[in-house]
Design goal:
By secondary structure, this protein is of the alpha/beta class. It has two domains: about 130 residues, 3-Layer(aba) Sandwich (Rossmann fold), CATH 3.40.50; about 150 residues, Rossmann fold (3-Layer(aba) Sandwich), CATH 3.40.50.2300. It is about 40% helix and about 20% strand. Strands 3-2-4-5-6-13 form a six-stranded parallel sheet, sandwiched between helices. A six-stranded mixed sheet has the order 8-7-9-10-11-14, with helices on both faces. Strands 1-12 form a two-stranded antiparallel sheet. Helix 8 links the parallel strand 9 and strand 10. Helix 2 packs across helix 10, helix 5 packs parallel to helix 6 and helix 9 crosses helix 11. The protein is elongated. The structure holds alpha-L-arabinofuranose. One of its GO terms (molecular function) is carbohydrate binding. One of its GO terms (cellular component) is cell envelope. It comes from Cryobacterium arcticum.
Length: about 325
């Protein structure tokens, strides 16, 4: 069981009434009157250091967070997407939120390393930080209040176990990875490598940076370099798997028959492709955890114990029938 992280209540303020006052004082952070909610109550200000446009999963996740942290729910969410995935723009936004004196900060990191300084500054300012999706490396749980994400290691292990069943006599495969160094990429490689059977042979792995276009180009090259003798692709997100399917079709091969493609995320586009037989296995990486994030932020601000790691449940889809049945109810 991951150790719980007790977020310190504001120093020297034991009484609830005083604590409420400090929240108001902290949240305004300036001479500006604190924003108020529909019920006239003071809003909790939350800085969201986000990734920004990146693909279907990211759009669903960031919209879910913004929908959850609404003024109706008592929040003033300040959304700060990165500049084209640039970590420096995230660090600038993070620092600004500390200087503003927001009540809490949400972080979806574009890089795994380089966060110690700003996380230490947030702790000194007694601002709880909640990691969304992406982790930090090295993973020092004392630097943040909690991380909320599906289990990347378990999700990719489930994909490998399906691949083992599909190819009991072995196969050649390649891996299309997300950007190098990300915690989710490292964990997806870890889960897959630990579970995949020895008679599945990894010919090569290469980043296609979550992109359909880049994955199509990368896999076209891989197919040519290996004489089309590749039976399986482990694509670490849906967009890259859809790019691999395009490359298979352009090579005159049939996805699902000549090459089975596994993806992670579970977006509607991927499930539609699975229903059509263009993908073969889709592992959901559930992006809808805004309500979980609200509970963590409220508990941290109330000085309650908070789990340092909160795993978001996710499912898998292993057939066209499963995808077809799920599609009408999908929320992203
Ligand atoms: O960190 C989660 C990953 O980032 C998703 O799997 C991918 O689609 C997104 O870009």
């Amino acid at each position: 069981m991951a150790p719980t992280t007790r977020f310190r209540a504001f120093t020297g303020l034991a009484l609830a009434g005083t604590l409420a006052f400090s929240l108001v004082a902290c949240s305004s952070g300036s001479d500006e009157p604190a924003a108020s909610g529909d019920d006239g109550g003071e809003l909790t200000t939350v800085g969201f250091v986000a990734v920004g446009p990146e693909g279907g999963w990211r759009t669903a996740n960031e919209q879910n967070i913004q929908d959850a942290f609404s003024t109706e729910n008592g929040f003033d969410l300040k959304y700060a997407p990165s500049s084209n995935g640039d970590q420096n723009s995230q660090i600038t936004a993070f620092t600004s939120f500390i200087d503003e004196g927001v009540d809490a900060i949400l972080l979806s990191a574009t890089e795994a390393t380089g966060w110690e300084d700003v996380l230490n500054r947030a702790q000194e300012a007694e601002i709880p930080v909640v990691l969304l999706d992406r982790g930090i490396e090295p993973n020092d749980e004392s630097l943040y209040t909690s991380r909320i994400a599906p289990d990347n290691v378990g999700i990719s292990a489930s994909a490998a176990e399906w691949a083992n069943e599909q190819f009991p006599d072995g196969a050649n495969y390649v891996v299309l990875e997300g950007p190098p160094g990300l915690s989710v990429v490292n964990d997806r490689n870890k889960g897959w490598d630990e579970a995949v059977s020895d008679n599945l042979v990894k010919l090569e792995s290469q980043s296609a940076n979550w992109s359909t276009e880049e994955a199509k180009s990368v896999f076209e090259t891989m197919l040519k370099a290996n004489g089309n003798d590749i039976q399986l692709v482990f694509a670490q997100n849906d967009e890259m798997g859809l790019g691999a399917a395009l490359a298979v079709e352009e090579a005159g091969l049939t996805p699902g028959t000549d090459v089975k493609i596994i993806t992670i995320d579970g977006t509607q586009a991927a499930l539609e492709a699975l229903a059509a037989g263009r993908l073969s296995f889709v592992a959901e990486y559930n992006p809808l955890f805004g309500e979980d994030a609200i509970e963590v932020v409220n508990a941290a601000l109330a000085g309650e114990d908070v789990e340092s790691s909160i795993v978001v449940p996710s499912t898998t889809f292993d057939s066209p029938e499963a995808a077809t049945a799920a599609l009408p109810d999908r929320q992203y």
